[in-house]
Amino acid sequence: MLTFVGTSHHLAAIEAREQLAIPGEAMPDVLARLGERFGAGALVNTCNRMELYVPGSYARADLVDFLTEATGAERELIEQSCIDLHDNDVVRHIYSVASGVDSMVLGEYEVLGQVRAAFSAAVAAGTDDAILSRLFHTAIRTGRRARSETEIGRHAISVSSIAVQQARLLFPDLEHATVLVIGAGEAGRLAASALVDHGVREVLVVNRTQSRAEALAAELGGRVLPLDELARAMSQADITIAAADTPEPLVSRDAVEHAMSNRAGRDLLIIDIGMPRDCDPAVTEVNGVTYYDLDDLQAIAAEHHAARANELEHVNAIVDEEAARFFQWWEQLQVMPTIAALTERAEQVRTAEVGKSLRRMGLSDEQQSQLDLLTKAIVKQLLHDPISALRERGDNEDYVLAARRLFRLEDAFDALDLDTIEDDAELQ
Length: 428
What we know:
Blueprint: E1 2-8, H1 14-20, H2 27-38, E2 42-45, E3 49-55, H3 60-71, H4 75-81, E4 83-86, H5 88-99, H6 110-125, H7 130-149, H8 159-170, E5 178-182, H9 186-197, E6 202-206, H10 210-220, E7 223-224, H11 230-236, E8 239-242, H12 253-261, E9 268-272, E10 289-292, H13 294-302, H14 306-309, H15 312-361, H16 365-392, H17 397-406, H18 418-426
Parallel strand pairs: 5-6, 5-8, 6-7, 8-9, 9-10
Antiparallel strand pairs: 1-3, 1-4, 2-3
């Protein structure tokens, strides 16, 4: 049914996750190759996780081979960093991810948008199918239910709120602090917006694409500086949010040292939420610099975990309920072609035999109509028990195979519209 291989902050340190990250501009090509290899599939690729979902049953090695090619990482690293899941475990996993209980920050909401974006990317690349569509749409529904029916998301902290928290520790009066945002993506926008909401008035934006930098600066009430003036921008800023989508670090130790030499002893806070990291980790060795990467933020988030941990039981109950609904749909989808073929075969026999009788009997139109209704009722009664058994035991392949053989249905499948059948199963 489904195969999964992936990693997250639970399984791998940031150094390993950096090597498995796929840049945003490379994603369409990677998805195209995914479609060529497996027919369909989706990638959830965020700062804290890289997960591959493929419909069908595949060996772990098949997906690891693909990830090795797609990321350029060493196969041994992928083997050590990734887990594989199948069928029911895949469904439960993505439901937990969407619900925020697998996140670095328990209950955070941003991951729901990331799951939605992953499926949208698959749709755009043409690598979605009925199974993936059902899986991702129900995962989003599960995530919404978890947050509306439990307290898992109430007062939940996020990367953005952690950024504010750490900034206020160093700069209690944020009104007089200047924030530099490196990158114009969603993660940087959220963190900078949170700081603006808490009083920051001066915002600088540096990005490779000028138009995106201008759009973000306009939203935040800030101004744009060119990328080649990054060191000067850092010398002006008190808080730097590094969230660019680049394969190599943009901020070197030398650049930070140069910036600090022009800051008259003022401290600098750098919050690096890029994946891979946007800063050389050696910047931590520069005097006056406080640096946090995603793993540092995870340690901070762990301190806030207990406040919402008692909601996990309630969220897991929702995950269980939604997973059961998915499995029921899947079983129906499996058995629907057999039921449709059985119904079609019975109707073919009925109409043929009724036609023969009508030609011999010379009945009136009213009598012909009554005979038609009578034979339909008889066929419906005869098929009721076999169809009920198939619906109830559709998870047992022996029942499906037995029905196909007993009623000689193999040839009937060629005439079925399987897309219609899937739509019918969707409505169950």
